[in-house]
Predict the structure.
Amino acid sequence: MVKESLPAPIEQRKEKLSEAEEKTFTLLVTEHEKTAIDMDEFAKISRYAERLKRDKASIERKMAAIKKEGTEPTKRSRILEAIFAQQIELSNWFGQNTYTDSPD
């Protein structure tokens, strides 16, 4: 059995999507990002303020490291994330009262 190595980060940036994948990205990822949970909504609750500040600082450090390494999420990975989040709710993977987006 021959094992293939993962593409280098620079190769990932050259990702070529099919027309169907581009359409899926436009429709699905855009909607997924629009309905994402807003962390700042929790800042209104005083007991979460300090933890939220720490979490945001941690996210900033991790995002800087990802950018420095050149390993930003690809469009395909963002499509998969959106599908995964959608299926958690539609298929009740974690029960009926589990939500992956903000309520409308």
In short: The helical segments are 9-13, 19-34, 49-69, 75-90. Residues 36-95 form one domain. The mean pLDDT is 86.
